[in-house]
Amino acid sequence: MQATQRSDVVVIGAGIVGTTLALKLQEHGHAVTLIDRDHPGAATSFGNAGLIERSAVFPYAFPRDLRTLLAYALQRSPAAHYHWQALPSLLPYLGAYWQHSSARNYPAAIMGALPLIEHSWSEHAPLIEAAGASALVNQHGWIKVWRCARAERIALRQAEQSRDYGLSVRVLSSAELRLAEPNLSAVAQGGVHYPDSRQIQDPYDLTLAYLKLFEQRGGRFLRGDAETLIADGDGWQINTSIGKVHTAQAVIALGPWGESLARRLGYRLNMGVKRGYHMHFDSSTVSLSHVVVDVDNGYALAPMKKGIRLTTGAEFARRDAPSTPVQLETLEPIARRLLPIGARLEASPWLGARPCTADMLPVIGAAPAHRGLWFCFGHAHHGLTQAASSGRLLAEMISGRETYIDPTPYRIARF
């Protein structure tokens, strides 16, 4: 009979959020066990444009203008797609998302996201250096490009709003855009450069580098099933590959699976998922220095170690529904008219799910009805961006320290 193992803190979920949190907990002297049913970083954290988005002070709101809404409703915009059969189950989330995106409520989302965004790079940077992962960092920032006058107006308006929050923003003429990215075609009429952001050219490799650093600092990674988590006397117990592990403090950092486990424990969160796809393309005959976002069509082209990654917008569907990569199929010829990318490098596209709360803010903090239980998930499009700043905040809370930012906007009690 195996003896029960013990740990000071167990973090359940070894994506970029959970792994970064584990490192931040170690900085406060905790003995940490990191648990996942799969390989670290192989789920949601695997697929994104790789941006540590210092300029992302505006959470992705539900569109309010009639033109965009009609395009989405009629499935005529490649930026969004939905499954008809999933709509009844998604309506409570979508209705609340709509309300929180109103002119009255949206400023609260901005102010809640702002502290996590402001500290995003400063909290990641020392970890990246300590993990020996600096070679993964692209310092060029990202460029939002437009193809028509309407998209230009939208991009320029947000550029001005970004300046109000102290961000560096540079508007690029067509000629200046071509100097920055010579291989872009003339369909891109101009752009806005956000140089404050960094890009990780393989987010999966960064998670693995963080995991290696975590283990070098004495941390332990185990395979385990989050569904076996139960309250156990003065703490929590979970089944793992080496037997049962008992801990005084357990953190749910499961991304799009976090809401399911929280619901089993009695918590009702208004959350949904936005699914997304990516595909890599050969870059041997074309260069790309910045992440480029096509504002007209809602996709990004990102320079990665493997090639150029095309990432899609949002698909509204059940989390575990079969893959329907219609956005990728629509966007590939559109992207090729912008940049002459090479052949596909994979047989099928990657699919992942982003965990999205209706108010566009993550859930970070204590579970009010359970002693020693904590949450850290729901970062939507910005899990990589907010991982280190969220990790520091929760590590301070678990350690009983004064927090460097106000945790109030992220408490689960807001639901």
Count of β-strands: 21
Query: Are there runs of 5+ residues with pLDDT below 50, and where?
Result: none
At CATH's second level, what is the architecture of the domain at 1-61 and 102-140 and 196-270 and 362-415? Answer: 3-Layer(bba) Sandwich
**Structural class from helices and strands?**
alpha/beta
Shape type: globular
Summarize this entry quickly.
The protein is an alpha/beta fold and 415 residues long. Helix content is 32%, strand content 25%. The protein has a domain at 1-61 and 102-140 and 196-270 and 362-415: FAD/NAD(P)-binding domain (3-Layer(bba) Sandwich), CATH 3.50.50.60.
Report on the architecture of this protein.
The chain has 415 residues and is of the alpha/beta class. It has a domain at 1-61 and 102-140 and 196-270 and 362-415: FAD/NAD(P)-binding domain (3-Layer(bba) Sandwich). 32% of the residues lie in helices and 25% in strands. It has helices at 16-27, 66-73, 87-100, 106-118, 120-130, 149-164, 174-180, 203-216, 258-264, 326-338, 383-398, and strands spanning 5-12, 32-36, 51-52, 80-82, 137-138, 142-146, 170-172, 190-194, 198-200, 220-223, 230-232, 235-240, 243-252, 271-281, 291-294, 299-303, 308-311, 314-316, 350-357, 363-366, 373-377. Strands 1, 2, 10, 11, 12, 13, 20 and 21 form an 8-stranded mixed β-sheet that branches. Strands 7-8-6-15-16-17-14-19 form an 8-stranded mixed β-sheet, sandwiched between helices. A 3-stranded antiparallel β-sheet has the order 3-9-5. A hairpin with a 6-residue loop joins strand 20 (363-366) and strand 21. The chain starts with a strand and ends in a 17-residue tail after the last helix. The mean pLDDT is 95.
